Amino acid sequence: MTIRKKGESSVKAFRQELTENSYFRQEELVFWDCDREKRMRVSAILSKMASFAGYDYDARGLTHEKLYAAREVFLLSRAAVRIHDCPYARDLLDITTWENGARGAHMQRVFEMRDQQGRLRISAKSDWILVDPMTRKILRPSSFTAKPLTVCPVEIDCPEPKKVALPKEGTGALGKRTVRWSDLDGNGHLFSGNYGDIVWDFLPEDLQGKIPRTFCINYHKEAVLGEELMLTGFREGDSFLMEGDGPAGICFTAQCDF
User: Fold this and answer.
1) What's domain 172-257's architecture?
2) CATH superfamily placement of domain 2-143
3) CA distance 116 to 101
4) pLDDT band of 171, cuts 50, 70, 90
5) Which residues contact 203 (CB under 8 A, 6 or more apart)?
6) Average pLDDT value for the chain
7) Alpha-carbon dihedral of residues 165, 170, 176, 177, nearest 10 degrees?
8) 13 falls in which pLDDT band (50, 70, 90)?
9) 14-19 long-range CB contacts below 8 Å, 24 or more apart?
10) Distance in angstroms between the alpha carbons of the first and the last residue of the chain
11) Which residues of 138-150 are buried (b: 16+ CB within 10 A; e: fewer)?
12) Residue 6 pLDDT > 80, yes or no?
């Protein structure tokens, strides 16, 4: 498929493809996706992970509305990202996502982002919990009725999502962050991708301009409009750990390895 205007060269449409166990789509990075050095932000990586999980199920007719009516919705619990070669603004990425079965109470979804030469730029893994939206009760993966879970057929070069916790000693206060209107998603709470920007805003200045090798985040409690997060950090060598505490307890923990 091409789009052509009179007197202009043709422009190829971005591709997308749905297979039995994967969803593929091409996306071009725009300035909003990138930092002041035009490098893809961690928040943009997290945002695309959340978006592609939705694209996959939407393409299969399993929209959020349909899952909600069936009282089976997903909440993101943990994510791990490995940046092999950070993409830049205007790069065209081939992004693929797969389900990857279940581990205990978690259902896993994995991702690869490659450039047009096929080189792996970013890989990621995410763990999700199945929840009844009416009662907020966590459901076992085996109770998911919408479709059989599939397993990713390729090896994803990324660490497993893990529990991130700050040590009891040696931490320092970083400041406060109020949840604003622009932070909210369609569920009315702080969007999962925005946590990446919060982490980077509170990193030590000498780390903010660096590209992390890996990034891990745990989502604990939802944060809503007007809540104030108290940020605490811990630095050890090339790693920085951060925790955000809200009125109801820990909201998130994250680890950046540079």
Assistant:
1) Roll (3.10)
2) Hotdog Thioesterase (3.10.129.10)
3) 29
4) very high
5) 233, 240, 242, 256
6) 94
7) -30
8) confident
9) 14/92, 18/56, 18/59, 18/60
10) 42
11) ebebeebeeeeee
12) no
CA distances from 172 to 190, 234, 242 (A): 24, 6, 10
Q: Which residue bears the tokens 């709470």?
A: 189
What is the mean predicted confidence (pLDDT) over 235-255?
96
Q: What is the pLDDT of residue 11?
A: 65
- Sketch the domain layout of the chain as residue ranges: 2-143, 172-257
Q: Residue 230 — φ and ψ, nearest 5°?
A: -95, 115
Instruction: Give the chain as a 3 state SS string.
Output: CEECCCCCCCEECCCEEECCCEEEEEEECCHHHECCCCEECHHHHHHHHHHHHHHHHHHCCCCHHHHHHCCCEEEEEEEEEEECCCCECCCEEEEEEEEEEEECCEEEEEEEEECCCCCEEEEEEEEEEEECCCCCCEECHHHCCCCCCCCCCCCCCCCCCCCCCCCCCCCEEEEEEECCHHHECCCCEECCCHHHHHHHHHCCHHHHCCCCCEEEEEECCCCECCCEEEEEEEEECCEEEEEEEECCEEEEEEEEEC
Let me know: does 226 contact 180? Beta carbons within 8 Å: no
Tell me what the mean pLDDT of segment 74-97 comes to.
97
Residues, the chain: 258
